[in-house]
Amino acid sequence: MNPAARKIQSIFLTLTLGNTLAASFIWGINTLFLLDAGLSNLEAFSANAFFTAGMVVFEVPTGVVADGWGRRVSFLLGTVTLAGSTYLYYLLWQFSAPFWWWAVVSLLLGLGFTFFSGAVEAWLVDALRFTGYEGGLETVLGRGQMVSGAAMLAGSVAGGVIAQATNLGVPFLIRVGVLLAMFVVAFFLMRDVGFTPEHSAHPLKASRAVVDASIENGLKNPPVRYVMLAAPFSAGVGIYVFYALQPYLLQLFGDPHAYSVAGLAAAIVAGAQVLGGWIAPRIRRLVRKRTTVLILSGVASASILVVLGLTGVFLVALALLTFWAMVASAATPVRQAYVNDMIPSKQRATVLSFDSLMGSSGGVVVQPLLGRAADVYGYPASLAISGVIELIAVPFLLASRRQRSLADQANASIAASDAGPPAGTELGKP
Q: What pTM value is reported for the model?
């Protein structure tokens, strides 16, 4: 890695650190926060579903911002929007607002996160290629995941401890402060490198172009399409499980007010992310195809969730949670690298945002269904059901593997450049 690429990596890691730290202050207590506000399990996970629905609705418009106005502008807008909507969440909790207010503000939270999805990753990949970096993307993305995991570890533990020492609302206020600080950091450090925004005077026309580009470079590209079709099942389940584990572990622990235990669950996931980010490039040196990692991860993750739903022992549940998080985390950089190596630079943020949209759409449906299952049958049964749902993603990953894309074995980017063939032609052929 040359000095210019190393500088880009440093900025990426700094932004990842700050953003994840801000977000993670509430991750360990979010479900408890919603339940404390008077919502039922169905309403709490429906509020989360509205959050993911916001990500679905706003992915395309914010994709226009990222590709039309720049990835830096998109990031800055994301910090401001997320800070404002987080503060509104705090106010809803203060006044025990009715469910539909939670639904509206959850949509705004989704909007905040869509400004980040795709934009930061696209900024990193384009900037690295511009500097002449030719190494495997798993290495840099894995480091990003390690930093993200460390930040999540610190933030989630601190959030749980602070909530127990004060109240459930204080971590939300801390999150607002850190996000505003990240706005200042990104304003001075982040510049669009290796990418020139294509401004459009017609937002609706630009939105349609984004959808067309997403379909052309995503759903019409067979190996990418099948990975995207797997996302609703794996991502939808992942979102539910992460938040359902908070009240479930408290239930097993036997103290509904031990908020630090809920923070511990998020901290375990964070620690697994660090380890998974470190393992990912090493797994790639041992395994010939990226899809092998993705398929084995899907099967293992689903199996762990079924077993997790059958246990009633707190320490066993913690061990299974650790293994589940580590398996998923090790596969994430591999999946990111696989997709990035199959899409062209100009539509990178667009296709990545559409990929995020596909995952979020699963969360819109899966979370309320599993939340209702938790109300009727209990958390253990809902976790076992989530494992069965995640297995549905595996056939799609097998279909992607059968396309024999060059990206399945690549160690460096082979995606179509502006001067090269479009993604989904030579790369998509068996």
A: 0.70
